[in-house]
TrEMBL record:
This is ENKUR protein. The keyword Cytoplasm applies. It is found in: Cell projection, Cilium; Cytoplasm, Cytoskeleton. The keyword Glycoprotein does not apply. Residues 135-167 form a coiled coil. It comes from the Eukaryota.
Length: 228
């Protein structure tokens, strides 16, 4: 049978630490002394012992020397000082009152809301900074979006028609529209057969498509052609 070579060491370590978890606290507690018995009111605070008269005399301050001269404070004339402050001070502005009853009941006009103090502010009617900042951010975002759109168009290799090509295409579409319109006017008034009705519907569809293309080219000055 296989036996570990550390078997005896493990047994020794287990028996060595075996008594550590048997009790809570120290294994051996000293027996209390009979002199340490509970007394009456042992936890109340005790006053300090009274000082003797000799100790009080020692704590008295010493007399100043003969060469000591105390600082003499100059007396202030507060009546004169207050009079000068009143004479040189700015007069108080009269406060606006409003009397609303015949008995003379009055109240201050400024905090009542009847005094136009807000329209007299320096920043009254001015656009707040947050609104201006938001408009600038929106404008910058729009410029960045337009730049990104142009960059995407450049990446897709879309070709922009020149003004001469746009004019030539527009002239060709109008010329074709006149030709089909002339053929449409030459149709008979009475469409009594299926061929006549189909031919009329085809001409109307072509005229409608040509009108849509002409309006789109006239509306947009810059036209891009995708490289398919």
């Amino acid at each position: 049978r296989c036996t570990s070579k550390d078997r005896e060491l493990v047994k020794h370590e287990a028996e060595k630490n075996k008594s550590q978890w048997k009790t809570m606290g120290p294994a051996k507690v000293a027996v209390p002394s009979p002199n340490d018995f509970l007394q009456k009111q042992p936890k109340e605070p005790k006053l300090a012992p009274k000082k003797k008269e000799q100790d009080v005399k020692r704590l008295l301050p010493l007399l100043p020397p003969r060469t000591y001269h105390p600082v003499i404070h100059i007396k202030k004339n507060f009546i004169k000082k207050n009079a000068v402050a009143v004479i040189t001070g700015e007069p108080k502005k009269p406060r606006h009152f409003c009397v609303d009853t015949r008995h003379g009941d009055k109240y201050l006009l400024e905090p009542s809301g009847l005094f136009p103090k807000y329209i007299k502010k320096k920043n009254y009617g001015a656009i707040p900074k947050c609104v201006t900042r938001r408009k600038e951010e929106m404008k910058r975002e729009e410029e960045e979006y337009q730049a990104s759109v142009l960059e995407q168009l450049k990446k897709k290799a879309m070709k922009a028609l020149s003004e001469e090509e746009r004019t030539n295409i527009l002239k060709a579409l109008k010329k074709k529209w006149e030709k089909i319109h002339c053929a449409y006017q030459c149709l008979p008034v009475l469409t009594d057969t299926a061929y006549k009705r189909m031919h009329k519907e085809e001409l109307e569809l072509e005229l409608k498509q040509l009108e849509h293309d002409i309006a789109a080219i006239e509306k947009h000055k810059t036209i891009y052609i995708a490289d398919v």
